[in-house]
Automatic annotation (TrEMBL), chains A, B:
It comes from Amycolatopsis mediterranei (strain S699) (Nocardia mediterranei). Residues 36-55 bind DNA. The keyword Transcription applies. PROSITE patterns: HTH_TETR_2. Keywords: DNA-binding, Transcription, Transcription regulation. It holds the Pfam family TetR_N. This is TetR family transcriptional regulator. InterPro entries: Homeodomain-like_sf (IPR009057), HTH-type_TetR-like_transc_reg (IPR050109), HTH_TetR (IPR001647), TetR_C_40 (IPR049513). GO terms for molecular function: DNA-binding transcription factor activity; transcription cis-regulatory region binding. PANTHER family: HTH-TYPE TRANSCRIPTIONAL REGULATOR BETI, HTH-TYPE TRANSCRIPTIONAL REGULATOR RUTR. It comes from the Bacteria. Residues 13-73 form the HTH tetR-type domain.
Length: 218, 218
C-alpha cells in the first residue's frame, strides 16, 4: 500500500495539471489571456491552491499550454511520417497536415497563431521538427537551394503562420488547396523541381484524427 | 482672429494626438501593453482628459500607434521606390529595406513584430503595399510563378515577420546578408530566374533615414 500511494498521488497531480493546461488552452484560444487565475481553476474544476502546486504564474501555465498542444500535434506528425523515406516528402506532408489543422481544430490553431512568432523560434513543438526535416532534406540533396537552414526555417514557419491567419480571415477559402499551393511553392524555393514539387503535394494524406493513441488537447 | 482660432486648436490637438501615439509606441515596443492610461499620458506629457478627446480605449490608441508607425515607414518606401520601373525590383528593394529596419529601428521593429500576424492581414501599412507590388509584378510578367496573390502575400509577410524575429533573437547575425538571401529566395519562388533574383538583391540601396521629410516615430 505504501508503495502504491505515490503513484496514485502522481496520477492525480498529472490529472490536475492536465486539467489546468486544457483550461488555459481554452482561454488562450478565446483570446482571454487577461483572465484571472481563479477563473482558470474554476474552468479546470480544481482548487485555487492546486494551481500553485504546478505553476508559479499564469504566464508559466499559458506557456505550458501552448507547448503541450504543439508537442502533441508534432508527435502525431512524427508518427504519420515515420514510414516515409524521402525527407522532402516528410516536410511536405507535415506542412500540408499543419495547414489543414486550422479548420479542423480551430481552437488549437488559434493557440498556435496567438503565440506564433515566439513559438517560431522555440525549441519545442513544430519548429524544431521542421528544422530536422529541412536539415535531412538538405543532407539528402533534396533541398539543393537551401543555403541557410535558419532562414529556410524562418520562411517556412512564417508561411505556416500567415497561411493560418488567412484561413481564419477567409472562411470560404479552400484550406487544402491553399495549403498545398504554399507547400509546393516552399518546395520549389528549397530547390525541388517544379513538377516534382507539384506531385509531392498531390499525394494522398493520412488523417491525423484516426491515430489510435492521439493525445492532443484539441 | 476668429478664423485663426480653429487652426491653432487643430494644431494643438494634432500635437497632443501625436504625443499620445509616440508614448504608446514606446510602451508597445517595451512590451508594456498592460500599462495604465495615466502612465501613457504622463509619458506623453499631456493631461489625462486629453486622452479621451482622441481615443475611447487604450486598445484604440495602441492600434493607432502601430498603424501610424507602419504607414510612415510604408510611405518612406513609396518615396524611395518611385523612380524604379521594374515592379520586381520595387518589391525587392522594399523587402530589403524592411529587413534592415529591425536593427536600425529596433523600437519600431518590435511594434511591428508584437502585432505582426494581425497586421499581416491589415488594410494599412506594409501589407497592402506589398500586395500592390506583387500584383504589379504579376501583371508585368515578372512574377510568373505566382498563381494566387493572397498566398504569395501571405508567404512574403510571414517571411518578413519571422526574419525580424530571427534578427532580434540572433544579434550577431548579419542582418543585411540574411535579408537579401530571404528576398532572393522569395523572388525565385515568385518566378524570377535565379541569377536575376541574385542580381536584384545586390543592387545598392538608398538610406531611408536621409529622406528630408521623414515622419516616422522611430
Amino acid at each position: 500500500m505504501a508503495e502504491q500511494a505515490p503513484n496514485r498521488v502522481d496520477r492525480r497531480k498529472a490529472r490536475t495539471r492536465a486539467a489546468l493546461v486544457r483550461a488555459a488552452q481554452t482561454c488562450i484560444a478565446e483570446g482571454r489571456t487577461a483572465v484571472p487565475i481563479l477563473e482558470i481553476t474554476q474552468l479546470a474544476d480544481v482548487g485555487m491552491g492546486s494551481f500553485y502546486n504546478h505553476f508559479e504564474t499564469k504566464e508559466q501555465l499559458f506557456q505550458a499550454a501552448v507547448e503541450d498542444a504543439l508537442e502533441a500535434f508534432g508527435s502525431t506528425l512524427d508518427t504519420l511520417t515515420e514510414d516515409i523515406d524521402d525527407p522532402a516528402e516528410v516536410f511536405a506532408q507535415s506542412f500540408r497536415l499543419t495547414g489543414r489543422l486550422h479548420r479542423k481544430h480551430p481552437e488549437l490553431s488559434l493557440v498556435l497563431l496567438h503565440n506564433g512568432l515566439a513559438l517560431a523560434s522555440s525549441g519545442q513543438g513544430l519548429a524544431p521538427r521542421a528544422r530536422r526535416d529541412i536539415e535531412a532534406a538538405v543532407r539528402a540533396g533534396r533541398f539543393i537551394a537551401v543555403r541557410d537552414t535558419d532562414l529556410a526555417l524562418a520562411v517556412a514557419t512564417g508561411a505556416a503562420l500567415t497561411l493560418g491567419r488567412l484561413l481564419h480571415d477567409e472562411p470560404g477559402r479552400d484550406d487544402a488547396a491553399a495549403t498545398d499551393l504554399v507547400t509546393e511553392d516552399l518546395l520549389r524555393m528549397f530547390g525541388v523541381p517544379a513538377a516534382e514539387a507539384r506531385a509531392l503535394c498531390q499525394r494522398p494524406l493520412p488523417d491525423p484524427d484516426t491515430l489510435p493513441e492521439r493525445d492532443t488537447a484539441a
